Amino acid sequence: MTAQDVRPTSDPAVVARAIREAILDAGFAPGQRLVEADLSEQFDASRGAVRTALLSLAGEGLVERVANRGARVRVVPLSEAIEIYEVRAVVESLCAEKAARNVDDSAIAELREIGDRMRSAVSSGDVFGYSALNQRLHQMLRELGHQQTAADVLDRLHGQLVRHQFRLATQPGRPQVSLPEHLAIIEAVCSRDPEASAAAVRAHLDSVISAMREVGERSDVRR
Length: 223
What we know:
Layout: H1 12-24, E1 33-34, H2 36-42, H3 47-60, E2 63-66, E3 70-73, H4 78-102, H5 105-124, H6 127-145, H7 148-169, H8 174-190, H9 194-222
Antiparallel strand pairs: 1-3, 2-3
Helix pairs in contact: 1-3, 2-3, 4-6, 4-7, 4-8, 4-9, 5-6, 5-8, 6-7, 8-9
GO molecular function, one term: DNA binding
InterPro entries: GntR_C, TF_FadR/GntR_C, Tscrpt_reg_HTH_GntR, WH-like_DNA-bd_sf, WH_DNA-bd_sf
Pfam families: FCD (PF07729), GntR (PF00392)
């Protein structure tokens, strides 16, 4: 196959996935302009596919269209992030409740292993490793919950919270606070206690909301 035989992708779903991953991995910064011509070259995609992908991502809340200026990565303010976390607390507590009803011995072993690795990550100061385990734990709760609609809602909300989650995760002492909260979730699910599982998730996300408010207040003071 020659270079001339290789054509840019015209599938908007493929392009949207690539741009979404770049936003979630901090390849694009909040507020950064997303120029169709540049994206077309970067992702080897047709301009039409890029345009449609950006419209799709705007529907997800990751991108915003600005009149006469094209598209940019959407900046989610703290007040909106807190609202999203409040919604997430309701939906994710449902997933945890269902997970406790569905969990089997194999999943229990994996959850406990995640807990052990979380302890080790906090002990060694591995913030990014701990963050990855955090994401895996919450993803596993969704999978065990067998609630596809809830999982879709949470996936959509997650993309809008990445910047705030990273900012919070890197705050000194935050992993030491959230570790026992995560361990409480794991213990409740492994004990097959739906009510305790839901309560543990709500308590954890309430703690996250409080911490986000504190970080926001400190930022306001420094300005």
